[in-house]
Design a protein that fits this description.
alpha/beta; Rossmann fold; 7 strands; globular
């Protein structure tokens, strides 16, 4: 069986990222620092470019993959953080709901938002759908969100590790090989 190269790249920095805010459904663009950081990378090549519909992902893809037109996969967007959206841990420190969520190890649903299980399932199902449609591609690049990458790798990477083990910085990610069932991480980008 021929292996498919998979790039999983987290979008560049946004103002919310710099302030350590929960930014999921907020469609904020890259900040100037994020654009500058991405422009230090060499342009990349792929047979198929897949993006979350969020501005920060589309802008990242345009900088890193200027020759490709992205396929938009709506279900690869970041988690809906509900009442935590747009806030950082300092602003939430007096919230009983936030403390409950922290005490649960991040397993409780976000108040008025998405549950972690539903989010992970949405991301992995979208990944599977995209992969089935591009069986002829030798290299598929995904420009998505940190949580999306962690969801995909938690389910498919071998050896299996916990969701939080796959965190990556903005503008970085993983180079993997897909064998039709699992992802083998080759490099951290």
């Amino acid at each position: 069986m021929e292996m498919t190269g998979i790039l999983l790249i987290r979008h560049g920095l946004t103002a919310g990222n710099l302030e350590k805010r929960y930014i999921g459904r907020t469609d904020e663009p890259l900040c100037s620092e994020g654009i500058s950081q991405l422009k230090t990378h060499e342009p990349m090549a792929c047979d198929m470019l897949v993006c979350s519909p969020m501005k920060r992902c589309l802008q990242t893809a345009e900088i890193l993959f200027p020759q490709n037109i992205p396929f938009i996969a709506h279900d690869l967007r970041e988690c809906d953080f509900g009442d935590f959206e747009g806030k950082n841990y300092r602003e939430l420190s007096d919230s009983a709901d936030y403390q409950k969520w922290i005490d649960s190890g991040g397993s409780l649903p976000f108040p008025k938002g998405e549950s972690p299980d539903d989010f992970r399932r949405r991301c992995t199902e979208a990944f599977e759908t995209v992969i089935r449609t591009c069986s002829e591609a030798h290299m598929v690049a995904f420009v998505v969100h940190g949580g999306t990458i962690m969801s995909i790798l938690e389910k498919y990477a071998l050896p299996h590790m916990d969701y939080f083990c796959y965190q990556c910085e903005n503008g970085h990610g993983y180079s993997c090989l897909w064998n039709g069932k699992n992802l083998e991480i080759r490099n951290i980008l």
